[in-house]
Amino acid sequence: MTSLPPFWMAPKPLLLASGSVTRRALLESAGLPVEVLKASVDEKAIAATLLEERTPPREIAIALAHAKAEAASRKAPDRPLLAADQTLDHAGSLMMKPVDRDHARRQLVCLRGKTHYLHSAVVLRQGDTVLWSGVSSAALTMRPFSDAFLEAYLDKMGPTICETVGGYQLEALGAHLFEDIEGDHSTILGLPLTPVLHALRDLGYLMA
After folding, report:
1. Which CATH architecture best describes the domain 14-202?
2. Is 55 buried (19+), middle (13-18) or exposed (0-12) by CB count in 10 A?
3. pLDDT digits over 82-93, tens only?
């Protein structure tokens, strides 16, 4: 095993219950040792049930993160793990990943010229114990881009348009869609890094 950084106090790396390359990169950029342990969770089914109960998008984000953490913890009950999820909140309605180009076009037309919110939730868990959970939000306002730009954007994005909620990746081509952004950048990328690091220090996994 690669030697652990001196400020990481646990005997083994942090488990990440997510296949997100971006989330892993955020943690590793902060010097945290990370191992991926994917969790099998039917996010659409969970979200559908919660929507029927009129659960707000912010609370759906934390519920999904809890579900991932619980599923992953069964595989490694003796290890601390982190699970995360993100929802897009448009006027109180949940917007999921687009299923195809036409769906992405409809979503972007709906968001064009308006402000929506990204809610990024995180759960730290070990075995049956939830060690910490939190959710951070960011407000993003899309510019009133033209239909011609939209089609050019969809062409350039290709199949990746279906990989993120809202059909954009702010760290890449999605930057062209916005005129104003309020919130922490890591929250927008799906993992509010500062509160996570604070929680890990409080829990004794990081040197204070």
Report:
1. Alpha-Beta Complex (3.90)
2. middle
3. 999 999 999 999
